[in-house]
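Give me structure tokens for this 590-residue protein.
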Amino acid sequence: MPKKYILLFPLLFLAFLSIAQDSEAVTFEMLVSKDKLGINERLRVDFVMNKDGDDFNPPDFAGFRVLMGPSQSISSSWVNGVRSYSKTYSYTLAPTKRGKINIRQASITIGGKVYKSLAKQIEVTAAVDKPNAQKTIEDFADESLHLVAEVSKSNPYMNEAVSVVYKLYVSPSISVSNYRPLDNPKYNNFWSQDIPVSVRNAKNGTYKGKQYRYVILKRVVLYPQKSGKLEIEPLSLDVTVDVPTNKRDFFGGRIYSQTNKTVSAGKRTINVKALPTQGKPADFSGAVGDFDFSVTASKTSLNASESLQAKVEVNGKGNLKLFQLPEPNLPSSLEVYEPEFDEKVRTTLSGMQGKVTNSYTIIPSFRGKYPIQPISFSYFDPKTEQYKTLSSDEILINVVEGPTSASGNTASQTGSKQAVIATSDKFNFIKLKPNLTAIGSDYFLGSTSFYLWLLLPLLLIPLAIIFGKKRDAIASDVAGNKIRRANKLARKYLSAAKKSLGNKEAFYIALEKGLHNYLKAKLKIETSEFSKDKIMTLLTEKQVDDTTRNGFIALLKNCEMARYSPFSEVQMKQDYEKASEVISYLDKQL
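Here you go.
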């Protein structure tokens, strides 16, 4: 390759960087250390721009006395191939009077254009006990550390998704070395799902108009289960903060002092709107979101005694885990088994999305045509604030071969009389001359096979005695039978949790789901009613003893705590064994 082309590449790269830098939007703004201060305090004013400029023209600072400035600082860095540039002019001011004082606009010329900052209003009050020069480390940490709960919607409908993101804002002047949760929020009257934060990367942001670094600590999706004003309890943290002091070490480096601060996100109130009653369909089961609905059959033509699968499926975005699927209206002449429920749902900050399915196994016994009548599914769309109803198509099952039902050859026939058609081969005379043949000389009576079959019952008597004793022993073992029934019931509802032992997140999600499914089967209640207060009330009404009730609620609390607290594998095994015992005791009392 010629040398002139080799030298051309660096020039093209520099030109590309210059074009990319020029395409960035120009910002020029005024930042103040505080909006309200005492007359004996000091105010810092920074004029920050993201590109170099000329002819900087500061305001006259009427009502203030300039103690220091302008001091100039420049910051430039490259991160992942992207250049970050910042230039700052700083002033230190002392107020000369009380009242509300306006700091007027400043201007600068960047790239041939004049940019102006926005004016700021500062309130100067009477002298304060602790002016800037006398602030303690705790005061400085209080001003530089904030925990905020950002709620996506403050006025949602019942069963509409609401996301809460907890952010810790830290001023660039301090650093955080450690933190731990003190009081985790309890989401009463909400269905909640944590969204794990796998990597906690610090990002740049603003809080109340000031530059901060922030990190996302916790994300959760909530579905309100009742209307009215609902409170979200605060998240509280104990944070270890390193605060710079005015002291220097031997080499001139700034000395930091460490302190612990407790920060809280504060309570948030959400005003939940009830679903409208006007236009509410009769078959509405609590679905809120945007969905599609279908009923399908694996095949529509088959022989008698063969099986087919009929699937009732809802897919889309909304509270997929919090409503019941409609049941198909099937002809009584079809043998139908209990449906198998399947859900493929993932939860993001915008809510649940995926699909839920009930799969019915159907076996026809007779030849004929069996219609599966259309069924409907209703849901509420919070975007349009209207109810919507979707209907499936009719499915005709054609059984081509098999016996004919005594009541007719189709399942769609009504109770009206039908003509009986006689055919010529239904009635015949009895034959008087039988067509018989000899069976031969090999008779079964007296043969070896005859004596073997004769002795077989005698040989089976000892086996029957042994089997009977074993059965009696098992029946008399009352405690053992209780344990076996409890283990069987626990395996049924906790099988998924046992498979996930060692994986904290998957184990406690499966454990919580197993406990909920057990109560749903035993108490015949909807999933939307699953709050700890409701469960405690129901178990009390069923006269379940205090120990069992408290044990069940403790397990639910462990499932919630495990989402944001460390749990060992030993603790998981203990919770699994405890769940088996609680289900056993509940089964006896319910």
